[in-house]
Amino acid sequence: MSEADEPVEIQPLPLDAWHRERGARMVPFAGYEMPIQYAGPEGGIMAEHLWTRAHAGLFDVSHMGQLMVEGAGAAEALEAVMPGDISALRPGRIRYSLLLAEDGGVLDDLMVTNVTEGEGATPRYYVVVNGATKWDDIAFLREHLPDEITLTHLDDRGLLALQGPDAAAVLDGIVPGAADELSFMQGTSREWRGAPLGIGRGGYTGEDGFELSFPADRLAEVADALLADDRVRPVGLGARDSLRMEAGLPLYGHDIDDTVDPVAGGVAFAISKRRRAEGGFHGADRILGALAEGPASRLVGFSVEGRLPVREGAAIFSGEAQVGRVTSGGFAPSVGAPIAMGHVDTQYSAPGTPLEAEVRGKRVPLTVSEMPFIPHRYHRKGAAK
Amino acid sequence: MTRYFTEDHEWIDVDGNAATVGITDYAQGQLGDIVFVEVPGEGTEVTKGGDAAVVESVKAASDVYSPVTGTVTEGNPALEDDPALVNTAPESDGWFFKLTIADAAELDGLMDEAAYKAFCDTL
């Protein structure tokens, strides 16, 4: 499957003009023109990456699909296609989950928030899916959700991510109290300038941070309010990728896709304990079998010797035998060296295993590494602030 | 010494049959932060328009072509320790390689500085 093979109409993001005013270089991605990096001395992937780790980066992630699944029995309906314990997810809680094809292949990875408004209210789940897969996801969900469950594409909403050690203090400046209310993987909502602002604590950089959902036609107001704080700078898609790689988080369509089950894809942690015991999700036989027997291959991280970046597609060797392939790779600004992620045969997946990647006919030594490459700094409940 | 430019954003300084090659300030700006440069070793035969070096930004790898045919006399050793020289001094200390030109007539098709500037303005 290749996105490039399909004629896709490139759409502008709600903040298209906002990005261009700030000197963004726009590139086509997931059907949108997206900012890859910004101009000026503060811009560039390296500077934007390091700024996010030191202060707060503002990312436009409006290309992602925001969906609402609601109705009596919504949790059970989602459990047919996702392996998470959605029924146990309390209001205001967020879980990472997967959309599974009938054969157990991973169709997408996503975040589910229980946004049910109170005791006895209609169950409602807010689901954020990848931009590149959202149209397929919507079609798949429409096909598999029972008729009494309503699926709404919230395409009139935009999404921003504010990430970094200063994110909580910055958010507190425009939405007082919201950061205090939330720990990692919790969500809430506020009325902000007369419109609903959805707030979730989490993100894709390994840093503490928030995702903010607001009407698309007024998203620039939120972006401007955040950027008015000196601790915030806009950050593009380029640094988003290097940050998430350092955080050891998989990228759908690269590190995981529909050819792997969650076990081989390294995302088996998304399968809850109860669901492992009970099954009843797409591909349960295959996936529970893979859990019991162990996968034939695993997604691992690699630390790369030297400075030559090892990128997606590079073959991984142990001696003369090809034992895997790189699925994400590049230079890691906070590590100060190249890093990579990829699938290797399980016998070569232990941290410390020395392997080689082939880059332009040359062998580059690398070592299977623990992930994340940079420690996560999420704001977990009970942890020091 | 005369400086010429290619449409692929290389520059070449020519002094008799000796030349120095690098990428332009415009090119480094397009590539962004450069983290690795692979330069050809002494004795490498390069051809006009053929692959001669590789420059890696945070995001991607790009080929650098030789503006003329010739034999490499030296790759820039400074780029091994400090690839970011290509960002900070693309048209001086951040040169890629030196070579001996095989056929000076190949220079005829290249642009001078004014023509290159006009070319960049159309991009």
Topology of this protein?
The complex is a heterodimer of chains A (about 375) and B (about 120).
Chain A: E1 11-12, H1 16-21, E2 25-29, E3 32-37, H2 45-54, E4 56-60, E5 65-70, H3 74-81, E6 94-100, E7 106-114, E8 124-129, H4 134-144, E9 150-153, E10 157-163, H5 167-174, H6 178-181, E11 187-192, E12 195-201, E13 209-215, H7 219-227, E14 232-234, H8 237-246, H9 273-278, H10 284-293, E15 297-304, E16 315-318, E17 321-332, E18 337-345, E19 354-359, E20 362-369
Parallel strand pairs in A: 1-3, 4-14
Antiparallel strand pairs in A: 2-3, 4-10, 5-8, 5-9, 6-7, 7-8, 10-13, 11-12, 12-13, 15-18, 15-20, 16-17, 16-19, 17-18, 19-20
Chain B: E1 2-5, E2 10-15, E3 18-23, H1 25-31, E4 34-38, E5 45-46, E6 51-57, E7 61-65, E8 70-75, H2 78-81, H3 85-88, E9 97-101, H4 113-121
Antiparallel strand pairs in B: 1-2, 2-3, 3-9, 4-6, 5-8, 6-7, 8-9
Describe the protein.
The complex is a heterodimer of chains A (385) and B (123). Chain A is of the alpha+beta class and 385 residues long. Chain A is 21% helix and 33% strand. In chain A, helix 2 packs across helix 8 (237-246). Chain A is globular. The termini of chain A are far apart. Chain B is an alpha+beta fold. Chain B has a single domain, classed as OB fold (Dihydrolipoamide Acetyltransferase, E2P), CATH 2.40.50. Chain B is built from 4 helices and 9 strands; from the N terminus they run E-E-E-H-E-E-E-E-E-H-H-E-H. Chain B has a 6-stranded antiparallel sheet. The termini of chain B are far apart. Chains A and B meet through helix 2 and helix 8 of A and strand 4 and strand 6 of B. Chain A: Residues 298-373 form the Aminomethyltransferase C-terminal domain. Chain A: Its EC number is 2.1.2.10.
